[in-house]
UniProtKB/TrEMBL annotation:
<protein>
    <submittedName>
        <fullName>SGNH/GDSL hydrolase family protein</fullName>
    </submittedName>
</protein>
<dbReference type="InterPro" id="IPR051532">
    <property type="entry name" value="Ester_Hydrolysis_Enzymes"/>
</dbReference>
<dbReference type="GO" id="GO:0004622">
    <property type="term" value="F:phosphatidylcholine lysophospholipase activity"/>
</dbReference>
<keyword id="KW-0378">Hydrolase</keyword>
<dbReference type="InterPro" id="IPR036514">
    <property type="entry name" value="SGNH_hydro_sf"/>
</dbReference>
<feature type="domain" description="SGNH hydrolase-type esterase">
    <location>
        <begin position="9"/>
        <end position="190"/>
    </location>
</feature>
<dbReference type="Pfam" id="PF13472">
    <property type="entry name" value="Lipase_GDSL_2"/>
</dbReference>
<dbReference type="InterPro" id="IPR013830">
    <property type="entry name" value="SGNH_hydro"/>
</dbReference>
Amino acid sequence: MSKVILFQGDSVTDVDRRAEGGDGLGNGYPKLIAERLKEQNENTVVLNRGVSGNRTCDLINRWTRDCIDIKPDVLTILIGINDCWRKYDRNDETSLDAFVSNYTKLMDRSKSETDARIILMEPFVLPFPEDRKEWRVTLDPYIQAVRQFAVKYQTGLVTLDGIFSKAAIREGYTALAQDGVHPTPLGHRLIAEAWLEEYRGR
């Protein structure tokens, strides 16, 4: 039986996965991971259920259909940048308490209603354009919360914020994400490589 690997999140995961004529994986890191696993003859089914614009509250609303009912063997969650972004473009803030509460609901259900191995990925932002620097005030506590969830629930963790910051020293900000948020092809390769390293780690 094939191992089901499910990727959940927002536009960073979505990447046009519902485009006509596509394979449902989109054009980002989930597709790169699926291709790598296929090359290595792993018996896996990779599913992408990222939805552009989603926040933690949106994942809660679709978690039964898009996670629990799928019964994944491996579940990866990358969420949080829109919880941050909406504060700055719409004045629609997700407080840290709300973020933690929403994420806790997702984790509790995933742990109690599936047998999935869970790999969490940090939300991230690069300091370009200039206004992205202000986002750190909101995003940094979210990142710390995700790290704490990894400890509490004993999950895998891909430290994307640190990984992108380090890679940007060598590559430059816009080579990885032209708006500080949405990865370029190089940025998606960086995520895929980091995820595969965590996945192989145990």
